[in-house]
Design goal:
Layout lengths: L7 H14 L10 E5 L2 E3 L1 H13 L12 H9 L3 E4 L29 H15 L3 E4 L16 H15 L13 E5 L4 E3 L9 H8 L11 H11 L9 H13 L1 H12 L1
Antiparallel strand pairs: 1-2, 1-3, 4-5, 5-6
Helix pairs in contact: 1-2, 5-6, 5-8, 6-7, 6-8
């Protein structure tokens, strides 16, 4: 059975990873393919990979069926499924190792895989070990933090996001999906924020941050970028609030983890 926690955003993340790393030879196209932006992707492998972003691990292919189950699941998320026999000239790259050198031809937009590779290598050069797609066991519901010292801070931010357009149930995922990078020796995470993160809801969250919250970047600069880009993603309609809330929880992650450690001792 395909986990219902897999959402459209996780499929898109899987597609991005396939673009950068390819597909294992035994997981290629068969009878159907998922078509996105003119390119084909193997439906079952895409879902397996999407589960890593949704639940922290790649979903074993034996745990769900290809064909109807997989295709219907992807269609419900708004994706197009095409029969291979009805299409010509569609091919996907084989799975490949990361290149020793990043291409010097320039990046291919903000979703450029080479850019993330470069960031990771830069972090490795400075800090040593770096973990990609790091799973953080952090709950997304604001009431999960009712017994913590920062509950009122988070509740205020959550409430302001709800007031913005009247969306109230945007924290649907039970836990945060994996972070882009975790640097274990230095003890911090790094997120690769595309322009889709710079929205009015994100600005609202920053405006309600406590002044003593320690961050590795300038909130004022991020607010200015929110004003500059004013990005909008209405698929689903509350996606901007959802993204702003999940980004907020990542910013509070040091406090959240510190509180968990106190309670464990």
């Amino acid at each position: 059975m395909i986990p219902p926690s897999i959402e459209r955003e996780h499929i898109l993340e899987a597609v991005q990873k396939i673009d950068s790393e390819g597909v294992p030879s035994h997981r290629g196209l068969k009878r159907f393919f998922l078509e996105f932006e003119g390119k084909p992707y193997p439906p079952k492998y895409t879902i397996s990979l999407a589960n890593k972003f949704a639940n922290g691990e790649e979903l074993d292919s034996s745990r769900f069926s290809g064909g109807q189950e997989t295709n219907n699941f992807l269609r419900r998320l708004g994706f197009d499924i095409v029969e291979v026999s009805l299409s010509k000239g569609k091919s996907i790259p084989p799975k490949k190792k990361l290149p020793d050198k990043v291409s010097q031809k320039g990046h291919r937009g903000e979703r450029c895989p080479d850019c993330k590779v470069t960031v990771k290598r830069m972090l490795e050069k400075i800090y040593g070990s770096v973990e990609s797609d790091y799973k953080v066991e952090v709950r997304t519901g604001v009431e999960e933090y009712v017994d913590t010292p920062f509950y009122q801070k988070l509740k205020k931010i959550f409430s302001e996001l709800q007031k913005y357009r009247g969306h109230e149930d945007f924290a649907r995922k039970s836990t945060l999906h994996p972070c882009d990078f975790f640097v274990p020796d230095a003890g911090f995470i790094v997120e690769f924020d595309e322009t889709q993160h710079f929205t009015i809801p994100r600005k609202i969250s920053f405006q309600n941050y406590p002044h003593n919250l320690e961050l590795g970047f300038s909130p004022a600069k991020w607010i200015a970028l929110c004003d500059k880009h004013d990005s909008k993603d209405n698929d689903p309609s509350d996606r901007d609030e959802q993204r702003a809330w999940y980004d907020t929880l990542r910013d509070f992650l040091p406090e959240i983890k510190l509180d968990f450690q106190r309670n464990a001792n």
